[in-house]
Write a structure and sequence with these properties.
415 residues, 7-stranded antiparallel β-sheet, 6-stranded antiparallel barrel, binds 2-acetamido-2-deoxy-beta-D-glucopyranose, disulfide bond, Peptidase_S1_PA, signal, serine-type endopeptidase activity, Trypsin_dom
């Protein structure tokens, strides 16, 4: 057994050595590298000389729709998990301050640690105070395919009723924010579907255009929308809108085809707190049965989620469970709409619901252990009242429309 292991280790080393011979590039201490093609191999080698500083930081960025995998060979005194003065830090999110990093130390000369990025950026830190320490990192770039991609990756525990979401439970939620009063507030929601596009409703685009004169930013990775981004989750970020495309069939009176796509001015950085939602590709010809439980989310309204403990000042992303009902009047004869109704809470005389400023946010089904985006909050009949319910765009009927707008080359992960 030991012998086999040794041979394997030897082969590993040999591959590493061959790769080293072929090496095209390596990154210096405190270096940045932007990969241009996906089949490149890059090395981080530490120490590079006796003069190498005791702290090095490396940023690696690969092309959009690829990810980076790292094999880390190291010889560092120090014992996990604290590692004290000697360690390798790896941020799978590409965090520029190495927040939320994995930490490695000890002896891994033959059996490398393997770790991959979430999106197309990864950062590394090496801290050492000994000249006998060494670290070698081999980086490879892989294109996302339908076999290795992912969507809706953070799953929280399911709970009944309305409540705060967990931080970054819904990685695909985007908020359209504007400066109102003293805080930035979310005026509409949206759902990230690819690194460049956000799905929302058409009437939100009308509001962004006519009421807010495009003076709106896209906030992602958020939990508490009233906190400044640098005091919210480590994934909080802002993007500008580059363009918005409303469905040509949108009718304001009937709310028919209340769907739109927003393109971000630059590619969004995907990480553990920001990524694409799974779209209902497996459900294109499916009618969600009455009685199916779904989860609506939103920063929007005070009545949302009917939770008694909702902190109305802090605007934590809310979630509420709604029950699909195809017999409700606005959905009776319209398979492109999905009606859903919350439970009525007798104590506070409110019904779980999505309301005004939740427009554009997602209604998720929990299928095969993931959140799948089934609906877009479009309109409602009243809000939180006894007779109220929420009317959603049924996303499965618009997948072809989405593809026609974003083009065939835009990558969507289908799970
Ligand atoms: C390196 O740092 C560790 C932890 O602070 C310390 O115990 C060790 O003595 C240091 N080694 C050298 C050579 O300075
Ligand atoms: C949300 O952010 C606001 C503004 O920074 C802060 O006053 C409030 O306490 C925060 N709420 C929570 C639950 O963290
Ligand atoms: C409000 O949003 C803008 C982006 O539109 C951002 O630059 C600013 O820091 C935000 N302010 C607060 C208090 O969050
Ligand atoms: C669906 O709505 C109809 C009409 O309001 C109602 O009679 C029925 O009980 C509802 N079904 C469920 C499962 O909630
Ligand atoms: C839906 O269609 C049925 C059968 O044609 C009809 O009786 C009903 O009134 C229609 N409902 C709505 C809200 O138009």
């Amino acid at each position: 057994m030991t012998e086999i292991k040794l041979i394997i280790a030897f082969i590993f080393q040999l591959t590493a050595a061959i790769n080293l011979l072929r090496k095209s590039e390596n990154i210096n201490c405190n270096g940045e590298k932007r990969f241009s093609s996906f089949d490149q191999v890059i090395y981080i080698y530490y120490p590079q000389s006796e003069l190498t500083p005791t702290k090095c930081f490396y940023l690696v960025q690969s092309p959009v729709n690829t990810y980076i995998s790292a094999k880390i060979y190291h010889n560092l005194n120090g014992i996990e998990p604290n590692c004290r003065g000697q360690k390798v830090l790896v941020s799978r999110d590409g965090d520029s301050e190495l927040k939320g990093s994995s930490v490695f130390c000890g002896l891994r000369k033959n059996r490398p640690m393997e770790i991959s990025s979430i999106g197309n950026e990864m950062t590394f830190g090496i801290i050492s105070n000994s000249s006998t320490s060494s670290v070698q990192i081999i980086l490879r770039i892989t294109k996302f395919t339908q076999n290795n991609c992912d969507c809706s990756w953070n799953i929280g525990k399911k709970i009944v009723g309305g409540s705060n979401t967990l931080p970054n439970e819904f990685i695909a939620h985007a908020a359209f924010v504007t400066h109102l009063n003293e805080f930035n507030q979310s005026i509409c929601g949206g759902t990230i579907i690819s690194q460049n596009y956000i799905l929302t409703c058409a009437h939100c685009i009308l509001a962004i255009k006519n009421v807010f004169k495009w003076n709106v930013m896209i906030a992602v990775g958020r939990h508490n929308i009233s906190a400044p981004a640098n005091r919210d989750t480590i994934y909080a970020d802002y993007y500008k809108i580059s363009s918005a495309i409303m469905h040509k069939g949108y009718r304001r009176k009937t709310n028919d085809n209340d769907i739109a796509l927003v393109r971000t001015a630059k590619y969004m950085k995907f990480n553990r707190g920001c990524g694409a939602a799974c779209l209902p590709f497996a459900y294109e010809n499916f009618i969600v049965p009455t009685g199916t439980i779904m989860t609506a989310i939103g920063f929007g309204s005070t009545q949302f989620a009917m939770s008694a403990n909702i902190d109305r000042q802090s605007w934590i992303l809310q979630k509420v469970q709604l029950t699909v009902n195809n017999s409700l009047i606005h959905c009776q004869n319209d398979t492109r709409k999905l009606c859903a109704i919350g439970d009525f809470n007798d104590k506070i005389k409110l019904r779980g619901d999505s309301c005004q400023r939740d427009s554009g946010s997602g209604l998720y089904g929990y299928m095969r252990n993931r959140y799948v985006l089934f609906g877009i909050t479009s309109s409602g009949y009243a809000c939180g009242e006894k007779k109220s319910y929420s009317i959603n765009v049924y996303v499965a009927k618009y997948l072809a429309w989405i593809r026609s707008i974003i083009g065939s080359s835009e990558f969507l992960c289908i799970k």
